[in-house]
């Protein structure tokens, strides 16, 4: 029946929006970025000799 079409459109919109949110959440939380290893060479400090 044509009178019931807006209800089914609303249901489809809610269903697709929910699927989109679940899909994005799964992709966001399943991604594990690489943690950079801190080497001692980058941390070592060299003395600064200011010559005014």
UniProtKB/TrEMBL annotation:
State a single Gene Ontology molecular function: proton transmembrane transporter activity
One GO biological-process annotation of the entry reads: proton motive force-driven ATP synthesis
Q: Which residues cross the membrane?
A: 6-26
- Transport: present as a keyword of the record? yes
> Which superkingdom does the taxonomy of this entry point to?
Eukaryota
Subcellular localization(s) per the UniProt record = Mitochondrion membrane
The annotated subunit structure for this chain is:
F-type ATPases have 2 components, CF(1) - the catalytic core - and CF(0) - the membrane proton channel.
Q: Which family does it belong to?
A: Belongs to the ATPase protein 8 family.
The protein in question is named ATP synthase complex subunit 8
Task: Look up and give the organism this protein is from.
Answer: Antarctoperla michaelseni
For this protein's source organism, the top of the classification is: Eukaryota, Metazoa, Ecdysozoa, Arthropoda, Hexapoda
